[in-house]
Write a structure and sequence with these properties.
3-stranded antiparallel β-sheet, mainly beta, 7-stranded mixed β-sheet, 190 residues, Jelly Rolls
Length: 190
């Protein structure tokens, strides 16, 4: 089986660009009983974390799953695999490397975006005090652009740090403004 980041990258970028897949990916809470069946197969879980802001502007971490992929050949005659298309338009794809010892200041994501950890580890701290640590193959959807200061807490967004003594390499897929606005609310914002 391909590493998770490879599956997501091929799903979000190659499938969307080529129109090869017809299944539209959707998000459900991780604990949801909704599961996808396709061609007699049960879709394996594809978990991710969401960094989101509530209606008061405080940030939190949600745990979700992607559903709705199809089990079929992506490039016939290759064997079937799980494939689906992101419903969003992509503005940019970037690579980021956070050096050992990196500590970012409190900030919002520049827009809704996927962050997929390729190498090393990093952490994200939310204004509610939750710390999420992610390593290779893990991903999150950042949807904290509506975060704002509150009367008792002037912090906004999140605080990022590298974890350990090796660089953290990330693939960042930023969604287009406007298209992604509907995806910025709730624990499974995507």
């Amino acid at each position: 089986m391909k590493p998770l980041y490879a599956m997501v990258f091929s799903c979000v970028v190659a499938c969307a660009a080529s129109g090869t897949a017809s299944a539209t990916v959707q998000s459900v809470p991780k604990e949801s009983s909704d599961t996808t069946h396709s061609n007699g197969q049960l879709q394996p879980p594809i978990s991710y974390a969401t960094l989101w802001a509530d209606d008061k502007g405080a940030t939190h971490i949600g745990h979700c799953r992607l559903e709705g992929l199809e089990f079929k050949s992506y490039a016939p005659p290759a064997a079937p695999q799980w494939i689906g298309v992101s419903p969003d338009d992509i503005e940019s794809i970037a690579y980021a490397v956070l050096p050992p010892g990196y500590v970012g200041s409190w900030h919002r994501a520049p827009g809704p975006q996927w962050v997929i950890t390729l190498q090393g580890k990093w952490s994200v701290e939310t204004t509610d005090g939750t710390v999420l640590v992610q390593g290779p193959g893990e991903m999150q959807f950042n949807a904290d652009t509506v975060s704002r200061p509150r009367p008792d807490d002037q912090r906004v967004g999140h605080l990022s740090r590298t974890v350990g003594d090796v660089p953290n390499v990330q693939l960042i897929i930023k969604l287009k403004p406007g298209v992604a606005d509907q995806r910025t609310g709730g624990k499974c914002a995507y």
